Amino acid sequence: MAIRPIVKWGEGVLHTPSAIVPAVTDEIRTLLDDMNDTMIAAPGIGLAAPQIGVGLRVIVINLTVGEDPKQLIELVNPEYISREGEVKEEEGCLSIPGYAGSPVRPRFVRVKGLGRDGVERVYEGEGLLARAFCHEIDHIDGKLFVDRLTPLKRDLMVRKLRKRAKANDWDDSPS
Ligand code: NI
To answer: What distance in angstroms lies between residue 80's CA and the mean position of ligand 1's atoms?
Structure first.
């Protein structure tokens, strides 16, 4: 188990669709452990493998930020079964520290994928959990919340993020 560095906006792995995991092996279970540790340390409520530089379709979510380990959701090769409704709420991303945006997301999702035992799981999520599933699945599709903003807001934010990425400076408060 290890806390891994979180990759920031502008790194190729975040902007490229991740590969399907062919089999849930011990390496994938170690990846899941590292992702959970990294998410809790950040702290955050979700993390996708490309955020630690691994281009594989693996996500973790825990709305309690590890407070209740039983609420940890681990999914390999997650995909949507259904999506319903629309809601616009503010969200952030560990790969874009200090920035937030309000993309339109489904109100409700049903998602399936493989657990750490390789057995299929189905989850339903509403509200924040639905948003977390969509945010993390976006990550493995190479999309960030910025990519879902209106063109005007996206262009404005991208200009700021380019400066940050170029300077590799994500520490001070955003400008
Ligand atoms: Ni994110």
So the answer is: 18
